[in-house]
Amino acid sequence: MTDQEALIALNMLPKIGPVRVRRLLDACGSPAAVLRAPADTLRRVEGIGPDTAARLRRWQDEIDLSAELARIRDLGVSVITHSDPLYPPTLLQIHDPPLLLYVQGELLAKDRLAVGVVGSRRATTYGLTAARKLSFQLAHAGVTVLSGLARGIDTAAHEGALAAKGRTVAVIGSGLARLYPPENAAIAARIADGHGAVVSEFPLLTEPDKQTFPQRNRIVSGWSSGLLVVEAPAWSGALITANNAADQGRSVYAIPGPIDRASSLGCNKLIQNGARLVLDAADILDDLNLLLPTPSAPSPAARPDLSPSEQSVWDTLDQTERQLDDIIAASGLPASEVATALMRLEIRRLIKALPGRHYLRPS
What we know:
This protein is α/β, with parallel strands linked by helices. It has helices at residues 3-12, 17-28, 31-36, 39-43, 50-57, 59-62, 65-75, 125-140, 153-163, 185-192, 212-223, 237-247, 265-272, 281-288, 308-316, 324-331, 335-347, and strands spanning 78-81, 100-105, 114-118, 144-147, 168-171, 196-200, 226-229, 251-254, 276-277, 322-323, 352-354, 358-360. The radius of gyration is 23 Å and the shape is elongated.
C-alpha cells in the first residue's frame, strides 16, 4: 500500500479528522504505519481513545478502499496530498488542513493566488451582477476565483470567471461523485474542462449535509489570499466564512449594499467592523499587490511579455500622467479593451494607476 492510498483510507474513516490524523502521523511516521500500528500505540496518541483505536485497527471492515480507488480511476480524478507541490501552501497554514484533495480538472501553480468570492444563496439581481462583474475582473487580471459552487453568489462568481476565460476553482461540500447542487453540473464540467478544477476533501460518494458545508467553507477561506463577501444577510454562512478568513489571517473585503435591504446587512456590518469596502476589483488588486513580487524593470532593448492590446496601451504611456480618454484615443482600441489591458498591466506593476483615472509608467 502506498502512502497516498493509506491517506485515502484514513480520510475515509469517520469521526477522526485531519488534526487527529496529523498527530497519528507524527507518532507513527507514515500513513501506512498508522494503519498497521497496534492498539496500545494508537491509544498513546492525544485524542485517540479506545473506540477510535479500535476503528483504526479494523479499518478494512469500516471502509472499502479498493472500491474508492477504482472510482478515482474511473472518474479520472486526481488526489493531491500535503507533499504535492500543487497543494495550496496557504491551506497548509490553517489549523486543520484537509489530509488530501480530490481534484476534477487541473490545478496549476498560478492557483496559489486566489480570491474567495462568497455570498448569499438567495441573492438579489444587485448581488449577482456585482459577483459576476468583480469575478470577471479578477479572473481577467490573472487571479483565480475560488468559490463553493452553491446557488446564488457562488454560481455568479464562477460564471464571471468563465466569461473572462480565466481560472476558477469550485470547492464543494460533497464528494465529487455526489455533486451538489446537481443543477450546477454543467458549470462544474466547464470549470474542469480547462478552466480550473472542482475540488473536495470528501470521499467520492459523500452526500452533502449540515457538517460538510462548514468544512468546505474553511477550505475556501484558508486557500484564499483574500475573501470577498458580495452579499449576505445578518446571519449567513458567508459571514461564518468571513470570520474563518479573519481568524486565518486573510484579508476580508465586502461590497456595500442599500441600508434598507436585509440582504446587504451582513456586508455592511463587515465593513463597519473593519472589512475593506470594495467598489470594483481594482480595490482588491491594489491590496493584493502587497503580496505580489515586484517585477524587475525591463531593459530599454527588451519588452515585457504582453498581449497585442497590452502592448498598444503600454506604448501610449511613459512617466507622464495620461488620462484614460487620451490612452483610448492614442491606442485606437475600444474603451473596454483598454480598461482590461490597464488592469492587467497594473496587477503586474508595469503601470501605476493614479486618482482621476490617470496612468503612467513607474520610474
